[in-house]
Request: fold
Amino acid sequence: MINNRFFYQDGILHFKINSSQFLSFDFLEGNFFHRLQKVEQEILIKKAIGKHSNALKIFDATGGSLVDTFIFLRLGHEVVACEQSKILFMLVKDAVERAKKEYDFLEKLTFLNANSADVINRFSESDIFYFDPMFAGTKKKLKRSGVLQKITKVLEIEKLGDTSSCVFSDLRKKNYKKIIVKRPIKSEPLHHQINYQVKGKSVRYDVYKKH
Ligand SMILES: C[S@@+](CC[C@H](N)C(=O)[O-])C[C@H]1O[C@@H](n2cnc3c(N)ncnc32)[C@H](O)[C@@H]1O
Reply:
């Protein structure tokens, strides 16, 4: 039973991962809050999105903690974000509800608790499909990112694997305008026919275009 591992503290929903670790999200303070205030500095993701005259419709197939989704929204786009994990979804949804008083752009967010494979066809008109698969790195590397390590543990509790690369492969066979895949800088691409790459120090964006 996972339901009895949720609890509220200071009005924030938490999940008990084990006897010493808890997970919760908050978009109203901390580093990410400050990053959102300086969204114009998000050069890499802006380059990956490319030139556009209107706000775009983005389908985020790997919602996670919605950090990337928030950047897209803050840049003025409309986002459907999909997260398979019920635990992550409930924690992040709680954080989104609390953040609504601060951010008007959340009106442009649709957040779904589903496997992307099951819903992606409903959003085939999206301008951009975005994928940020879990990094299958060494335990040492994972340790560097506390939140990612906790997300990994949560997925283990729910016995969920990251199937987003399969969703990506299926999508590539269909019609789409643009797919953006976020990858660790030195990792293999999900597919080699990339149209262009935007590279940072530790991550890169592989961009696939069809028409
Ligand atoms: C690296 S995290 C994404 C982090 C996210 N970009 C962020 O800004 O927080 C990958 C997430 O994708 C989710 N995921 C993987 N495969 C999925 C699928 N087929 N459908 C929905 N979510 C999936 C995992 O549960 C995990 O939370």
In short: The beta strands are 6-9, 12-16, 22-23, 57-60, 78-83, 109-113, 128-131, 178-184, 196-199, 203-209.
